[in-house]
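Suppose a colleague, Dr. K., hands you the sequence of a protein chain of 262 amino acids and asks what its three-dimensional shape might be. Before reaching for any lab equipment, you can write down a predicted structure in token form. Begin with the sequence itself:
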Amino acid sequence: MSIELNNINIGTLPNDGTGDPLRVAFEKLNTSLAVLSGITPGQPDGSLQFNQGNTFSGSANVVYDYANNVLNLGTSIVPNPGSIVNLGATTSKISALYLSGSGMTVGNVTMVESGSTLSFPRVGSPGVMASARFNNITSDGNITVAGQLNLGNSNFGTATLSTIDTTVNQVIYRTPVATFTTGKFQISTIETGGSNVTQTATVVVSKNSSNLSANYNVFGTVFTGTPLTQYNVAVAYGNVLVMVSPIVNTTMDHVLSYQKDN
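The predicted structure, expressed as tokens, is then:
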């Protein structure tokens, strides 16, 4: 803040007669005091204002509350164009929040945007994604899940496995028997190599109470071309196994869409 005051000329040496007369000196003093009295802040204590024409003005939108040790901001915080401004630091966080040019961190989870997609990696482990919990989810578009979707006691997901020969009971899906009650598996099989021979079927499985076996039924088998495989389900080594026994001695891809209940 720049304030223009009248300086008193005190001369070069004591009593050399080159300074201002006493009356002139006190006139300058009175003028300077009048300027200072006119710039007294008029907003609440702790407010930050700007000075214009030697007069404080502006709204008290930034106020430091000394009693509660709180800085109240009633205005927007906008960085200079082209600047990257950090809010806090990795070692000096604002509560659990750290806002930087690379993302926003809350506790041990970072929110990062890339290609219009939000991801939530864990702090210190960028390849490990954090879990999210919601009471309700509303979507106006598609929901893409990379992995298994858990809804209550039901699990939804997909799996793909290839077979290369007619070996009997090749496992294409397994899940621990202790966490399995019932399941429905939509299996699509295609003969690779561009032959366009396909087979689809739905396999419904229910575990017996002994945890030693399971019952299953195959529904809606549809062929395009010739039959490709048969199906089987068993319990072995603590797992429920969904298996195929290819009929044609060739390479096949088996794609499962499943719902299993714990």
